[in-house]
Write a structure and sequence with these properties.
Blueprint lengths: L29 H14 L10 H5 L5 E5 L5 H9 L4 E5 L3 H14 L4 E4 L3 H7 L6 E7 L17 H10 E11 L2 H13 L4 E2 L18 H8 L5 E6 L7
Parallel strand pairs: 1-2, 1-4, 2-3, 4-5
Antiparallel strand pairs: 5-7, 6-7
Helix pairs in contact: 1-4, 3-4
Protein name: tRNA (guanine-N(7)-)-methyltransferase
EC number: 2.1.1.33
Catalytic activity: guanosine(46) in tRNA + S-adenosyl-L-methionine = N(7)-methylguanosine(46) in tRNA + S-adenosyl-L-homocysteine
Amino acid sequence: MPSALPDDPTPAHPQRAIRSFVLRAGRMGTGQQKALADLGPRFVLPYRAEPLDLAQTFGRQADTIVEIGFGMGGATAEIAASRPGDDFIGIEVHTPGVGALLKLICERELGNLRIVQHDAVEVLEHMITPGSLAGVHVFFPDPWHKKKHNKRRLIQAGFVAKLVSRLKPGGYLHCATDWQPYAEQMLEVLSAEPGLVNTAEAAPGYAPRPDYRPLTKFEQRGIRLGHGVWDLVFRRPGGEAD
């Protein structure tokens, strides 16, 4: 095939979008496999490039919170169980984590939790309508430690602006990390977003861990070893909170 002509506006090799995750092969336990087969059709929402009807999805009108990258889903299930009046959508690309959370949904009888196994950027862009979310959780995203990989970090200005557009007035964005350089970047990016205000009253701007976010085993071990954990809770102005 001939290469693009000099005056052709279409590049010969379109640049691929930078992804904040790498798909890794993971072992699936028999319980996770069974949960995917038995519960997936009910609790895993297929990705479609069209708006999701939240009320129809959960069969009720309630505040909806999206969690991005829930890992193996332990904290997600615990939060959903502790907040039965709210609905939750967990977004995760790794199949073992989806299977693990499906098991927890069954064990804890969580009717207020659904899963989308797809790239969060595309889910937010196409499935979540503007101004529809009461909250967004981003807990311990990959910090991409090497400087040359920092561009892969999820919390960047453009992505945060997209998150803000999906929040309803008064909605919140809660991020947490155990990597201080990433915490500092998060604080800088979130503070620069004009559509958000920091809920932390004291400098430097990190929030106390909200009661609804449980301590993970990894986090508890880190705390015992003297490692830090930073929570950032920002809110979109407006709504009943003001």
